[in-house]
Amino acid sequence: MTRHALISGASIAGPALAHELNAQGWRTTVVERAPRLRDEGQNIDVRGAGREVLRRMDLEDAAREAGTGERGLRFVDDDGAEVASFPAGENDTAGGTAEMEILRGELSRLLYERTRERTDYRFGEQIRALTDHGDRVTARLASGEELDADVVVVAEGTRSRTRALVMPDVELTELGLQIAHLTIPRTADDDRWWRWHSASGSRSTSLRPDNLGTTRAMLAFLTDVRGLEALDRDDQVAILRRTYADVGWQAPRVLDALDGAPLYFDAVAQVRLPRWSAGRTVLLGDAAWATGPFGLGTSLALVGAYLLAGELSGGQDTDVALARYEELMRPFVDKAQDVKPIALRAMNPRSSAGLSVQRTVLSAAGALSSVFGGLVEKLSGPPAEVIELPDYRSAA
Fold first, then answer.
1. What is the CATH number of the domain that holds 299?
2. Are strands 82-87 and 72-76 parallel, antiparallel or unpaired?
3. How far apart, in whole angstroms, are the C-alpha atoms of residue 156 and residue 353?
4. Among 27, 199, 273, 394, which residue has the fewest nearby CB atoms (within 10 Å)?
5. What would the mean pLDDT of 242-266 be, rounded to a whole number?
6. Residues 233 and 157: beta-carbon distance below 8 Å
């Protein structure tokens, strides 16, 4: 009898899991709260083991072709003059800009297109209740329909609502970093570099190229105030205007675009859980292990999906498979979550003196590679030495 997996979340982790389970003969259903596939989102990078998963999915070339073409990371001063620049990496892990940079929406689209013929996608739908019978799980959807599945996978974001059905007492580690993402019209002055401007008060503005003819802007700031992500859009826009009112460089341009541009506002947090499964329901991606601000989320989602599908298809009991998935994935997640508050402060100086020190360090050619480059590779490039990917299909 064909096994069935019900997956909640249609961003990266969910469709990636469906892809690998389909290859192993599973029937898959993906429910997604949004009414359509989300094409919003900023640049994401795929590194190390995550890149290897794309190769095994035969998606690496398609992802590279859909890349943003970003040439590297350039820090600029208040006048837009270069403080320091870091060219894109030339391998799987190096550089602030990875060799493979792609919009989240573009990678999600590629995974969806690869899976939609064999996966039943239900947009505008969500899981409202779960009943574990021991040999199967019954999910009651918002529409009232009930679905039976051999396993239910919650592959949602950091603030997943479905996760509460399985683990109701999850406490997030809030890092104090607020990020507003928006898409703005490209101008003649925009180039293929990721440009980053820091201002005192732990505020930064950055502009990144995309492959769709627009520019992706980001406003990021540190604050002790919590709950800003839960406010409505008008209140968030008002906070951004007030916070960035005296910031120069391209901040006024970004603020001018706020009224009409797609906006995603998020408070960065980490998810740390003692276990990722309960019975036949399991967490995957940010819902299980959100790491924070340094860009490993996509690689972790891909690797986690690959390992979970492989272990579920290995012939052992479900509880053994889920324990094995966690055993393999934990070291990778633990290293990715090793984000020190001092690193956030270094990238977002509070005082004018701190900002001056940051720019001095960045502009010093010797410190560039040893300090910043080393930090980026430490945070965004652990894969190969931390995890060895089994070859599940050959074993099968």
1. 3.50.50.60
2. antiparallel
3. 40
4. 394
5. 94
6. no
157 contacts 41 by C-beta, under 8 angstroms: no
4 token code pair: 């069935």
Is the residue at 265 inside a domain?
no
pLDDT at 396: 56
Digit-coded pLDDT (tens) for 15-26? 999 999 999 999
Residues written for the chain? 396
- Tens digits of per-residue pLDDT, 367-385? 445 445 555 444 444 444 5
Write out the residue range of the structural domain in which residue 9 sits: 4-69+86-170+273-338+381-395
Question: Rounded distance, CA 69 to CA 80, Å?
Answer: 21
Number of domains within the chain: 1
pLDDT of residue 178: 95
In a domain, 31, yes or no: yes
In a domain, 44, yes or no: yes
Spatial contact of 199 and 352, defined as CB atoms under 8 Å apart: no
What pLDDT does 43 receive?
Answer: 85
pLDDT digits (tens, 9 = 90+) for 303-345: 999 999 999 999 999 999 999 999 999 998 988 888 766 777 8
**177-192 burial, b for 16+ CB within 10 Å, e for fewer?**
bbbbbbbbebeeebee
pTM here is 0.92
**86 contact partners, CB below 8 Å, separation of at least 6:** 72, 73, 74, 95, 96, 97, 368, 372, 373, 376
Structure tokens at 46: 């795929």
Pairing of the two strands 151-154 and 146-149: unpaired
193 in any annotated domain = no
**Average pLDDT score, the chain:** 89
DSSP character at residue 294: S
In angstroms, the CA 237 to CA 239 distance is: 5
**Alpha helix positions (H), 57-186:** 60-65, 104-115
Q: Show the beta-strand stretches assigned E in the chain.
A: 4-8, 27-32, 43-45, 72-76, 82-87, 101-103, 119-123, 127-132, 137-141, 146-149, 151-154, 173-185, 193-199, 203-209, 214-222, 263-270, 277-278, 281-283
Q: What is the 3-state secondary structure (H, E, C) of 193-211?
A: EEEEEEECCCEEEEEEECC
